[in-house]
Amino acid sequence: MSEHEARKYLTVTTLLACIKDRLTTSEELLADLSESSSEDEFIFDRDRAQVLDLMTLHGKPLGNLHGIPVALALNKPEGFTGNSTVEDLLNTHGALAVILNSDKIKASSGATDVSRNALIASIGQAVLESRPSLGLGIGRGYDFCLTSSDLGLFSYVPSFGSVPRHGLTDNLNSLDRVGLLANFIEDIAYFGDLVSHYDSRDGLNLPYPPPNLVKTFKDEPPVSPALCTYNLNDIRSDYVEDFNLVINELDTTKDRVELPDFSEMISKFETALMDNPDKCYVRKSLYEEIFRPGDKKSVEGQTLTDMEEIFLHLGRYFERFFLDYDALILPASQGDRNGDGFISPITKVAEICGLPMITLPVLKDKNDEPLGLQLIGKYWEDDRLMRTTNWIINQLFDFVDESK
Predict the structure, then answer these.
(1) What DSSP line would sit under 140-170, residue for residue?
(2) Checking DSSP bridges between strand 227-230 and strand 154-157, what pairing results, if any?
(3) Where are the beta strands (DSSP E) in 83-133?
(4) Given this chain, do its domains 3-207 and 217-403 carry the same CATH topology?
(5) Could you read off the pLDDT of 219-251 as tens digits, one per residue?
(6) Do 239 and 257 form a contact (C-beta atoms < 8 A)?
(7) What is the percent of the chain where pLDDT is above 90?
(8) What is the CB neighbour count within 10 angstroms for residue 278?
(9) pLDDT category of residue 33 using cuts at 50, 70 and 90
(10) Which CATH architecture fits 217-403?
């Protein structure tokens, strides 16, 4: 096995240790990227890699991502000249920003524009091949869930408002969220902590202390997590078959609950949002009143719009729901992307409410292709969701080991 092949199986923290001990260099990691990428697929600064290697050579303090390539899918606003918040952050931590060349994708596809899905899929494919170890983009939460499900990656979409989007999107008033992709859940936790912070330049970023993922990641839950799923009759049978096999191996409470029919509410909300795009600020104000950690404000006596009423209803529903359960668990996809209903209604509702979502590559369909196991958790309790995810992974790995 070549050194390049061997590096594919290393977590970010292991790679950082290798860089610190001079067993590999930032330039070598970029060389891995260049050798396995088509011409101009990514834009990166090779000189910066040399500077970072010199810092290592001279024993200078190393950053939290020192020399690690991170693939970014940026949709910068027209005329935007400064660095995005994430680029600034990566520079601070010593990472190498590897920016997906959207013009290259346009030219090869003949498209006049590149969709969020295409950008996310491109960085996902690169991460799958471990060219960069980490990927980050912006879109709807379910874009990341479906991409990771298709490719067999881990994905994490933090609670809305916990990661600033300044310079990543041309519309900071949108519902888009930053999402992370990686081959290892440890890398998701490590990177998730680094990107979660407050930046006033994103008016929908919330100034609350973000959850600490690494701190709680490997902690044993105080009790076995309480999980729930729902009626899966409308999902392809082969998806449900593997899902049930996996769920049955989890030694904990697994309730099957009857969820409300959210279809009409989703339709009304999306219509209201389309007619009033700036109304997404309702999300921030109602987060502060409903989901806010600590003291809650009261909305009693206030006159609410239809959109606010819908959001208030959904918010209160999930606040009650996650008093009983640590995570809602389901197949990340419900069928062929060319068919109807491949995104579950509950995933759409979770996206409207900005709930954290994690996808694990542990399921298979009838063709032995990857299918993600999706977990949805309580707003701003991403650490609890990450701990539950790690518990599930340990349970499944224990099961695999015992079967050998």
Answers:
(1) -HHHHHHHHHHHT-EEEEPPTTSS--TTT-S
(2) unpaired
(3) 96-100
(4) yes
(5) 889 899 999 998 887 777 778 888 999 999 999
(6) no
(7) 44
(8) 8
(9) confident
(10) Alpha-Beta Complex (3.90)
Query: Is it the case that residue 385 has pLDDT exceeding 50?
Result: yes
In CATH terms, is domain 3-207 a member of 3.40.50.880?
no
SS3 313: helix
Least confident of 106-110, 171-175, 252-256, 362-366: 106-110
* Helix and strand element counts for the chain (H, E): 16, 11
The distance between the two most distant Cα atoms of the chain, rounded to a whole number of Å, is 68
Name 71's Cβ contacts closer than 8 Å, sequence gap at least 6. Answer: 42, 98, 99, 100, 123, 126, 127, 131, 132, 134, 135, 136
| Ramachandran bin of 368, using left for φ above 0, alpha for ψ from -120 to 50, beta for the remaining angles | left
Tokens of 386: 């990450």
pTM of model > 0.90: yes
Domain ranges of the chain: 3-207, 217-403
52, two tokens: 């970072």
* Kind plus residue range of the DSSP H or E element containing 296: none
Torsion, CA 80, CA 84, CA 88, CA 90, rounded to 10: -130
pLDDT at 375 over 90: yes
